[in-house]
Design a protein that fits this description.
Number of strands: 8
Largest sheet: 4 strands, antiparallel
Radius of gyration: 30 Å
Number of domains: 2
Length: 220
Amino acid sequence: MSLRKSLATLLLSIFMIGAAVSSQQVFAQSASADSQAAAQTQKEDETNLDTQLYLLVATNQDVDDAKLPAALEPLIKQLRPSLPFKNYRLAATLINRVKNNGRLNLKWIGGPLGVSPAASINPSFNEFKVVGVKLVKDAAGQSVVRMEGFSFGARIPIQTGSTVLASNAPSTAPIINYESTGLSTDISMREGEPVVVGTLHVGPSGDAIILVMSAKRTQK
């Protein structure tokens, strides 16, 4: 009986030692995986993205400069069948840097966003905001930039009439009202490829503002 008890005790001790070693190995592997995940997350958090927002004006009126950036030419060719305007011109280019998992908010007083007489001499008031910018992978493993809470808004001058400056003079002055326009959405885009976010029709002339967005990782 003593021999059997001794063997049982020995086998139990061997089992407990094996279980302890296995538990330590699993814990070490888990800790190593957590450490690698934390290092990867920290590396991703240090990633910066260069964003470019292009404000294009589409119009059937003549414009002084209809030249567009070369990067947008393929996009404009795709747009023309669905938006057959006579001319397209670049009204503004906004270049900003934002941290991965960061946010962006910009307000500015800009030049004309239209080609009407009122827009040519009166500024526009604009705001561009993104609640969250995140670099992710799609199902095919390609890099995708996700922008949550993307919004653009503008207050644009519209001439609604005219008034006589003086009773004894024939000259008149335009009556200008500011009208608000904008959009809000969530978008995803392939890294480095410009995409059309949306179009906004402004004023009685039928002009349209086209929002084009692109983003890619910085090299520095």
